[in-house]
Amino acid sequence: MRTEGILTTCAAVAAILLTAALPGATAAASRPPSQISNVFGAYAGEIREAVAGPDGYRHVDTEATLNKLGELHNNTFVYLIWDAPSDWDDLRTAFLPAAQKRGMDVWIYLVPPTECSPQRCSYPYQTDYLRWAQEIAALSKRYPALKGYAIDDFNHNLNLFTPEYVRQMQDTSKAINPRLVFLPQVYNTTITPEFVDSYGPLIDGLILAFRDDPYRNTQRTDTLRAQLDAASAKLAKYHKPLVLMNYTSSLSATPFPPTPEYVRTTTEVGAEYVAAGKLGGTLTYVLPLNPADDWNHDNHAYHGVGRLSLFVPMATPTNAGDTAGASQVVQVDPNADEYHITFRHNDTYYSGGQTAGYQLKQLLVDGEVVWETDVAADAPGYSTVDVDLSQQLRGKTSATLTFRLLERAGVSNFWVDVSFDDIQATGFTVANPGFESRDTWELSSSNHGLLPDFDQYLPDRAVQAFAEVQRVYGAQERGHHGAAKGASGEFGG
User: Fold this and answer.
1) Cα–Cα distance list, 275 to 271, 362, 475, 480, 489 (Å)
2) Does domain 35-296+462-490 fall into CATH 3.20.20.80?
3) So what's the pLDDT on residue 57?
4) For residue 30, what are the CA distances in angstroms to 148, 154, 183?
5) Of 367, 414, 482, 493, which sits 20 to 30 A from 63 (CA to CA)?
6) Taking the domains of the chain in order of start, what are their residue ranges?
7) Phi and psi for 79 in degrees, rounded to 5?
8) Would the pTM count as exceeding 0.85?
9) Can you give the chain as a three-state secondary structure string?
């Protein structure tokens, strides 16, 4: 018999005896261990078979998906049941058994009533979440790798998910498997003291999908830490963990998918917080395991791969006079015979002019408006404009050129993405006229809810995003294994 084994056993017995003597130890010991700790996972983004089966559905390619998750250094996969009616059977018969053999934990992800239709829902039990709780719990007893389940957009469906209904769900599942966890997915503005007091005693944790709320976007990251800290502090009242979901592919109603830099920053913050014990886990949102599946990833430039984007998110209040734009000091030839500018513009809103008077696209020279048009008046697609600037530029050697979006009247929910591109100048010089880089132009905004930015199309965006997550998760995996090795060494003799 090895000496270190005896020492380890004695130490364990002593720890148990000491713990039992502490106040409140009985309740703590009877509580099932948390399943929400050190989670580095991916939500959805699975690889599907290229050809539909005899049932007409493209089934989940289990081996290909698990291979890519292994490359990503994931320890958890959040399996979405929504894309095909065969998803549940694919999970039960193929994916879950294979994941368990590889040591991969699995959570199930269901969609709420607001995302269900006859064509697409979480089949087979659809919006019967009591039945889902029962079936998932039973499956988790057969396959212990199934650790929990979540529901999307929980906060948009509170008319069904009342505290009493959630209590019934939890009673149903935990009567079968007390260790199975349930985590609703919500957004930052939902996590109020009132919400936490109503649901904190019932749930096992929360998934926070970060999108810079209330300014729905995947461009800014400066509010991430504050939102995580505030949400975690509220949940701490009930000793429930928070899990971050960071966007690694397109969020609906936003101008372009998250850049690799955005993915790197949000993934690094999530990993840092998990390592520090501030989060129970971090999950990537639909990171495409197959780069060809990078949905809603298009080149929105008129020419080349870059454009100026002036974006007002949905449900963002603005005030009359608010602006967002990009400016550059241009060099003027004082001996030129003429001064003209030609450019392309576009926007995502069109109403035939019926809702005109709220938002204007403008061009300014030295603060003077020389051209403008209403976003509601232009037909979809890029339009070409030529403006004579002789009056504004003659006799000058430099001038400030500004493309901007003006809120003529305040709005409460009028999302729009305005584009400018392909500038051609006569009589003066514009640097970076196609916004192909982030150089030479100065972005400005008078309202935090108006986002000026440069949209530069990356054909391999999904590949770069994958590499960023792989690097961060890989470093955490190496650090975790190193710490475990060091800890075991302390007792190794």
Assistant:
1) 6, 48, 11, 9, 21
2) yes
3) 96
4) 19, 29, 21
5) 482
6) 35-296+462-490, 306-456
7) -90, 115
8) yes
9) CCHHHHHHHHHHHHHHHHHHHCCCHHHHHHCCCCCCCCEEEEECCCCECCCCCCCCCCCECHHHHHHHHHHHCCCEEEEECCCCCCHHHHHHHHHHHHHHHHCCEEEEEECCHHHCCCCCCCCCCCCCHHHHHHHHHHHHHHCCCEEEEEECCHHHHCCCCCHHHHHHHHHHHHHHCCCCEEEEEECHHHCCHHHHHHHCCCCCCEEEEECCCCCCCCCCCCCHHHHHHHHHHHHHHHCCCEEEEEECCCCCCCCCCCCHHHHHHHHHHHHHHHHCCCCCEEEEECCCCCHHHCCCCCCCCCCCCEEEEEEECCCCCCCCCCEEEEEEEEEECCCCCCCEEEEEEEECCCCCCCCCCCEEEEEEECCEEEEEEECCCCCCCCEEEEEECHHHHCCCCEEEEEEEEEECCCCCCCCEEEEEEEEEEECEECCCCCCCCCCCCEEEECCCCCEEEEEECCCCHHHHHHHHHHHHHHHHHHHHHHHHHHHHHHCCC
Determine contact, residues 319/407, Cβ cutoff 8 Å.
yes
461-490 and 62-72 are packed helices; what angle lies between their axes, rounded to 10 degrees? 70
Q: Which long-range contacts (CB under 8 A, 24 or more apart) does 367-372 make?
A: 367/400, 367/402, 368/392, 372/406
Residue type, 88: W
Would you state the CATH architecture of domain 306-456? Sandwich (2.60)
Residue 175's identity, in one-letter code, is A
Alpha-carbon distances, residue 282 vs 35, 228, 357, 358, 400 (angstroms)? 13, 11, 43, 40, 44
Pairing of strands 105-110, 146-151: parallel
Place of tokens 């003597």: 21
Q: Give buried/exposed letters for 381-396 (b at 16+ CB in 10 A, else e).
A: ebeeeeeebeebbeeb
Q: Give the pLDDT score at 478.
A: 78
Structure tokens at 410: 């305040």
Please confirm whether the linkage preceding 118 is cis (ω < 30° from 0): no
> Which residues have a Cβ under 8 Å from the Cβ of 247 and sit 6 or more positions away?
209, 210, 211, 218, 258, 262, 266, 285
Q: Tell me the pLDDT tens digit for each residue of 282-291.
A: 999 999 999 9
Which residue in this structure is represented by tokens 């810079």?
Answer: 212
What one-letter code names the amino acid at 394?
Answer: R
Q: Are 270 and 279 in contact (CB under 8 A)?
A: yes
- Identify the segments of the chain with pLDDT beneath 50: 1-33, 484, 486-493
Return d(Cα 44, Cα 170) in angstroms, integer: 24
